[in-house]
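Input:
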Amino acid sequence: MKTRKVPGRPLPDVTLEASPHPVVVLDEAGRVRSSNTAATLVFPALETGAPLADGVPAWLAEAHARGEGTAHGAVGDRTFRASRSAPAPGGAAWWFTDTTEQSAAEEALRRERGRTAFLVEASNQLLSSLNARRCMDTTAQLAAGHLADAAVVLGPSGRRRIHVTRAVRGGPATRELLAVDPAEVPGLADALAGFPAVPSRWIDASTVPGWLVPDGFGPVGSLMITSLPGNGAPPGALVLLRREGAGPFSEGEEGFARVFAARAGAAICAAQLYAEQSAVADLLTEDLLPPVLERIDGIELAGGYRPSRDDHRIGGDFYDLYPAGVPGGETMVVLGDVCGKGLEAAVLTGRIRTTLQALRLVEPDHERLLELLNGALLSSRHTRYATLVLASVRRTGEVLRLRLTSGGHPAPLIVRADGGVETADTSGSLIGALPEVQATTYSTELRPGETCLLFSDGITEARGGPFGRDMFGEERLSEALSHCAGMPAEAVVEHVRMLASDWLGTGRHDDMALLAITAPRRPRPGPAGGQGHGRSTA
Amino acid sequence: MRPDATVVTHTAADTHAVIAIAGEVDCDAAPAVETAVAEAHRSGVRRLVLDLARTTFADSSFLHIVLTARQHHELLVAGPLHPAVQRLFDVTGTTPHLRITDGLDEALGG
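Output:
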């Protein structure tokens, strides 16, 4: 700093007194020449004529001795910034500014920035895993590293035992399943029930049971307990431990620990829900996977299902098979498309499949069957609906007698022996959304080598082609099918599936389902098969 | 980005709301339509007009929105409908359950 020299005269005391800032004026020898009242209030030991070092803290005396222009330090419980000027040749004056509030604000800002950075880092670490156990480990380690000397994550609690995850600062997390009573720790049972935490100063650290404290931690100086909110799932609890002599948790630290616990709780709960959901999804998918189709009672069946690439999503298209109970009886297949994806759609698919399985035993008529199914689905709370095609097939000699009914679904295509492709003349309304449904059934026969193809709109609406955005469309599907006369069912499905896949390229697509019903070219001679057994259907 | 992105406009009067949709409504575009329908629902109008004259394609995600809206509003569909949209209503058997008009004027006056 540049100091301006004022010619020869000592500063009049009246000027010093007028200054709100403490001022100390020194002579050439570094002795106090004068000071104002503000200075004597801060430095009561100052004496005129005595060396500066006798009346001020060491940091100021040393800065003066070194000839520095500014200095900063504490006086009692306050902090000051000192600036030096030279009012007379050889002399010096120190001016003081109280920086206590400013320093406190700067410190608070630094602390706040540190906390924000920690929360960001904590969120990143917590959300990087959808494994609940790893989330709890991370929570314990982060809390031990930044909020306390050790941290314990408790929960979720079972009937008698509770998961206890402990971490000491800088160490790994360890987990145990303990048969302990959380009520042994004051406030812990409340935290596990999701109630607000008890202020830590009310908890006697000496009462902490040994099972809570990590091995080799030593005596606990202070602890605080906070709930890990479960957001619907059972909550857990976070216990922070400090060693003896580390000081209690301040109100600010407790508040911050609760903010951290809220984030950690959300992450753990998300991971738990995810685990639960994927377990349910796995279970449902297992049950909802399309059945393996093969030749049944002289009827060739083949199916192809390509789910949408949205991973881990189920629902959408489905097909199912209900074999005739007796040889020569009527076998029913269904192919459908449930509106929506995910669990809700999967549940609806399951209901349709099981309802049809039961209803077909008492109601052979398709239109009536769809009415009953509609009634069963309408009673549910959701406005989800499905479109589907029913096909009932009975073999009469080498001919398949076929009844086809669309419930709001694209009508099946039939490829004849000569390569001609027909659209089954059936239409109807979708199921599960309208109070009444109507449908018309189309009856036809398949001669050897002829195929009826049931498909979902995922095939016809598949976007791709040379420009990447045209739909595959029913015309291309018909064209593809016209080359399938005389092919076995399996080959028809493969052929169409391959063309649709080529059309798609790498583009996104909806579920795609195909089901082929084919009259075999050379029916296997079977003991119960043969002419005359089939009853002609209307 | 598809060249013909779906445009949803929403004009509301005291008694009715009009949602006009241009382009294709597939599962990517359906949420925008759903939002507009939800807004109309919140505004409390009795009559909801879906102006589909410029809608070139719609799939089952759109149909779900239509069927849900039908439960809360006096729903009118203003055409003339593009063949792909007409086909969606025909194949699913919903045409007889919808009031489809030849134009927006008719929908607003009717």
